[in-house]
Amino acid sequence: MEDIIKIPQHVSIIMDGNGRWAQSRGLERLEGHKEGVESVRAALEFAVEMKIKYLSLFAFSTENWGRPTSEVQGLWTLMFKAIEREAKYLIKNRVRVLMLGNLQQIPEDLRMAIQGLMDATADCGGTTLIVMLNYSGKWDLIQAANRFAGENPGKEMTPEDMDRYLVTAGVPDPDLLIRTSGEERISNYMLWQTAYTEFYFTDTLWPDFRKKEFRLALEAYARRDRRYGKV
Ligand code: IPE
Ligand code: IPE
Ligand code: MG
């Protein structure tokens, strides 16, 4: 196995393909989401192992509300159960959890469980796991601009101001963005924060994306030459 010499500080993943994974097996879409939770655990374990400082996961987009209510409800239930089940593992492994997005619209019981998990892991100094929930890049930019304008009347916004008002404030921009399932688009994810991110696309569906695939993505990243517009 190739030694990965350049470990990204922040890896972000658009976890896609749960529905197709299930459908190809004649199962309900929700079964794909269930199996996808196992991939989340695997990705987190690998990130901890590799000492990746930030792992962010796109879990629910503001557009995903357009799915059948049963699927949306099913996703909330899955997340609620995952929080209950994983809290111990997270604290033991010093994982700090952040959930970022428009959390006001999340069902109350889940929102409280999320807050509890964020509080319980606030002092953990290992990997930070960021779950992007009810998030979209356009929503983030707009809420940042509006909040900035409200708090700084008459002042012109700078790029540094934008960094400080986005929900990802304090988190370094992703170095590597992985999208599974063969789709090659950003789907309204972190639009500002990915300005110089390296993209990695794989046909592997999210429920099949485990440590071996994650390692391949890191190896590909290590071979990239990031120029930032310079020579
Ligand atoms: C990604 O899998 C998970 C979420 C968006 C919540 P999908 O549910 O989008 O799976 P496909 O793309 O329909 O296969
Ligand atoms: C993006 O996947 C959102 C998440 C992974 C949470 P989608 O499946 O919703 O995106 P599109 O519809 O293929 O662009
Ligand atoms: Mg999808």
How would you describe this structure in keywords?
binds 3-methylbut-3-enyl trihydrogen diphosphate, 231 residues, Undecaprenyl pyrophosphate synthetase, globular, 7 helices, six-stranded parallel beta sheet, alpha/beta, single chain, binds magnesium ion
Structural notes for this entry:
The protein has helices at residues 18-23, 29-49, 69-92, 108-120, 137-151, 159-165, 211-222, and strands spanning 10-14, 54-61, 96-100, 128-135, 176-179, 198-201. 42% of the residues lie in helices and 15% in strands. The longest helix has 24 residues, at 69-92. Helix 3 (69-92) runs parallel beside helix 4 (108-120). The chain is globular. The model has no long low-confidence stretch (mean pLDDT 97). The protein has a single domain, classed as Decaprenyl diphosphate synthase-like (Undecaprenyl pyrophosphate synthetase, 3-Layer(aba) Sandwich), CATH 3.40.1180. A six-stranded parallel beta sheet has the order 3-4-2-1-5-6, with helices on both faces. It has seven helices and six strands. Helix 4 links the parallel strand 3 (96-100) and strand 4 (128-135). By secondary structure, it is of the alpha/beta class. The structure holds 3-methylbut-3-enyl trihydrogen diphosphate (IPE) (2 copies) and magnesium ion (MG). Residues 14-16, 58-61, 64, 183, 185, 187 line the site of one 3-methylbut-3-enyl trihydrogen diphosphate.
CATH C-level: Alpha Beta
Mean pLDDT score: 97
Computed CA radius of gyration, to the nearest angstrom: 18 Å
Main beta-sheet annotation: 6 strands, parallel
* Ligand roster: 3-methylbut-3-enyl trihydrogen diphosphate, magnesium ion
Overall spatial form: globular
The CATH homologous superfamily name equals Decaprenyl diphosphate synthase-like
Strand order of the largest sheet: 3-4-2-1-5-6
In sequence order, what are the helices and strands, one letter per element? Answer: EHHEHEHEHHEEH
Oligomer: single chain
Strand content: 5-15%
- Total of DSSP H or I helical runs spanning 4+ residues: 7
Q: Pairing-aware structural class of the strands and helices?
A: alpha/beta
